[in-house]
Amino acid sequence: MEIQSGVSTSNSNTRRGYDPQSQTYQAYDEKELATNGVSGAVYSNFGTPRNTLVTKMFSQSETEKRFVSFYSNVAYTYNSKYTLNGSIRVDQSNLYGSDPSVQFKPIWSVGVAWNLKRESFMDQVDFLNRLDFRFSYGLGGNSPKPGKGGPYNLLNAKASTMFAGLGIGYDIMYPANDKIHWERTRTINGGIDVAIFNNRITASIDVYHKLTTELLATKPTDQTLGWESFYTNFGDMKNQGFEVSLRTKNIFTRNFSWSTVLTMTNNRNKVLKLNLDGAMTAGKKVYMDYIEGYAGNSLFAYRWAGLSEEGNPQVYNAEGEIISDYQDESLTEDTVKFMGVTQPKWYGALTNNFSYKGFDFSFMLVYNFGHKMRRDVNNFWYGRLARNVSKKFLDRWREPGDEKYTDVPKYVSKTVENKTKSRDITFYELADINVLDASYVKLRDITLSYSLPKSLCDKLFMDRITLRAQASNLFLIAANNDGIDPEYHHYRSGLRGTKYGPSWSFGLTINFK
Questions:
Q1: Residue by residue, what is the 3-state secondary structure of 467-504?
Q2: pLDDT given for residue 99 in this prediction
Q3: Do 287 and 313 contact (CB within 8 A), yes or no?
Q4: CA separation for the pair 248, 261 (Å, rounded)
Q5: Model pTM?
Q6: Is 104 helix (H, G, I), strand (E, B) or coil?
Q7: Spatial distance between the Cα atoms of 488 and 503, rounded to a whole number of angstroms
């Protein structure tokens, strides 16, 4: 049994008006700046002609998690051959809804294992050192996030000009949901562990099937209820795949050894049910990553039809007709094309270790295959230039006829001209021509070390002295030709993150006697 309670609090203060050069402070009217703001700013916020102070001067938060847990584990092995184990856990927590029907839901698992090598009929199989079969079945889950379940609405105090003369206003952060409960996952797992040729080759293979019901996520809802979305259980999903781990001792002599470790994982999933409100449209589907009948983390895109003679983006509808109006009724959900998933289908690592007398050398390659990402496209289409822009801006449409040579839409000077019945930039930004293969192989690290001879260490009254040099992220082989490192790229939005180059480190380890 376990009883646990934890409380975390945070406070933040923001003050302005201090000049670090003169070390002086000048008072200012925060209420005036938050209500009326200033006009004529060089760079406006939110695209408005008047800037207001939006940062809170002071904020405070408190999160409390409480658990009462009952759990038990049992394991029994007979004759060093047959093993049976089981576990069960029951939780009561303030993370779940208060309705009694969602409390005290147990999670459990049972497993069996068979050490086949210890059977008498395997005694004559000399090359086999180990052969184990494993099978397990169980029910697990994830708990809701703190504050997302309960019988009451969680409110957020808000000062706004909308409430002028009425005092402090409140909006609903999280609506009441007293029936929110565990996200439950039923898992079937089978595995084999094998070792042969005096353990020169060892391997483990696991195959699994997971069925997750009552998925926890933020669900869009009817805004007339008073909120745009709420956190709840609203879907089912399955995952299946396998994991392989292989280790080999390729060469093993007195002075030299070489070993290899390979890991490989394959995963495929599918959303079986998703309880969403409202009809699905092309404009919704192209932004969503979980849609019933498709894999989780799916990526959808418009079918690109090129630029118009005016330099505006066009797409095909389901009938193959060219559309430029985002309000066209023929832009149904079938207009959007499934491009793949943003989660790698295959991933793992390959490590090689070499040892010669006092020298040790190793390197590790990591790989991710079978997934997609959006290209980082130009995102400056209108208005005044007030920031750095992509070099792709130079490839934009400028005059009639350019549509034959470029897919980058034209720039317009006025904001009101950017989204019209004949122009919707998202047709280009979210088009299939801007979806790339995100597969890559990277040299994660390479290490060289040298341990001084024991005779020398003894003279220095040391047990061991080792010098080490390590380098990380030395090279990348990527499937895309845009110079994108997928590891530092947001697959769904197409935004590049901060890319870190190679790193080097040197170390000295001394063990005293």
A1: EEEEEECCCEEECCCCCCCHHHECCCCCCECCCCCCEE
A2: 67
A3: no
A4: 7
A5: 0.81
A6: coil
A7: 16
Burial label for 438, CB within 10 Å (0-12, 13-18, 19+), is: buried
Check residue 400 and give its pLDDT: 93
The identity of residue 344, as a single letter, is P
Please state, in angstroms and rounded to a whole number, the distance separating the CA atoms of residues 307 and 407.
6
Q: What is the pLDDT of residue 45?
A: 63
For the chain, residues with pLDDT lower than 50 are none
CB 438 within 8 A of CB 371: yes
Q: How many CA atoms are closer than 13 Å to the CA of 220, on its beta-carbon side?
A: 10
Q: Minimal CA–CA distance to 205: which of 186, 188, 219, 191? A: 191
Which residue has 């009462």 as its token pair? 68
From CA 389, how far away is CA 378, in angstroms rounded? 7
d(CA 436, CA 494): 10
Question: What length does the chain have?
Answer: 513
Q: What is the DSSP letter of 391?
A: G
Q: How far is CA 181 from CA 1, 6, 138, in A?
A: 21, 20, 18
b/e burial code for range 403-417 (CB count within 10 A of at least 16 → b): beebbbbbbbeeeee
Output phi, psi for 39, to 5 deg. -110, 160
Residues 313, 423 contacting (CB under 8 angstroms): yes
User: CA dihedral defined by 389, 394, 399, 400, rounded to 10 degrees?
Assistant: -110
CA distances from 205 to 235, 242, 249, 369, 392 (A): 30, 7, 18, 20, 47
Report the amino acid identity of residue 440. Answer: Y
- Residue 223: Cβ within 10 Å count: 9
Provide the 3-class DSSP secondary structure of residue 458. helix
3-state secondary structure of 45: coil
C-beta separation of 30 from 57 below 8 A? yes
Give the per-residue pLDDT at 220.
74
List of E strands, 38-115: 38-39, 50-51, 58-78, 82-93, 107-115
- The SS3 call for residue 273 is strand
- 74/88 Cα distance (integer angstroms): 9
**Whole-angstrom distance, CA of residue 318 vs CA of residue 305:** 12
Q: Read out DSSP for 409-435?
A: PPPBSSGGGTSBTTB-THHHHTBGGGE
How many Å apart are CA 22 and CA 83, to the nearest integer?
75
Residues contacting 239, CB < 8 A, separation 6+? 208, 209, 210, 212, 267, 268, 269
Looking at the DSSP bridge assignments, the partners of residue 247 are 202, 261
Q: Where are the alpha helices (DSSP H) in 286-400?
A: none
Distance CA 47, CA 33 (A): 17
Query: Which neighbouring-strand residues pair with 15?
Result: none
* Beta bridge pairs of residue 506: 469
Distances (CA, A) of 152 to 97, 234, 383: 10, 20, 45
